[in-house]
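Board work, copied verbatim: Thymidylate kinase
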Amino acid sequence: MSSQEQSGFFISFEGGDGVGKSTQSRLLGEWLREVTGREVVWTREPGGTDLGLVLRQAVLHGDHMDPRTEALLYAADRAHHVASLIRPALSRGDVVITDRYLDSSIAYQAGGRTLAIDEVENLSLWATQGLLPQVTILLDLDPRAGAARLTEAPDRLESAGDEFHQRTRQAFLDRAAQDPGRWVVLDAAASIETIATQIRRAVTDRLGLAAAQPSAAQPAAHPRPTQVG
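↓ predict structure ↓
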């Protein structure tokens, strides 16, 4: 199923840790549910399925592993995630919003871990049978500012050091520059309300939601929905 063949909407959020992906994905999903009447599926990588939770524990909180093993585990999680959750939801016509997708593997395992970009990308494209989001929102922020927002003990990737995270940030920016039709790059240092409005406008344009003009009003505060999985 290509993005042109699916009946649902597929949107991914990308960026470093602490940039606000969870908050903005929640706000966007609630708004899209209101303006489109579609069901919204919130999910994440890794950990969007029961198997994904096991793999998430291994890659983020387990023992040290070499970069190739890490890349393969993320690809395995993604293959199962797409087959068991994302594709069925898109076939139903739902909105799927994921906190991270294959672009994170390219940024972290190729950019951060310095594996070959083509190898990491091709691995994920094979795992997902080429499924890409219609819109990818990159919340860009200096990694040091993002780290200062974190409130829990850092995981394996969060502890990888400033140089690693600077390479990862640049990899995200480089990838976004190569495909401006899919990517929306926003300054994550702006206010929650400003970012939410910018995202609504960009999504309206890219998904062709001509009748859904984003409101300039501040998004209401709602409790965070339960993660799918």
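The chain has one domain: 9-207.
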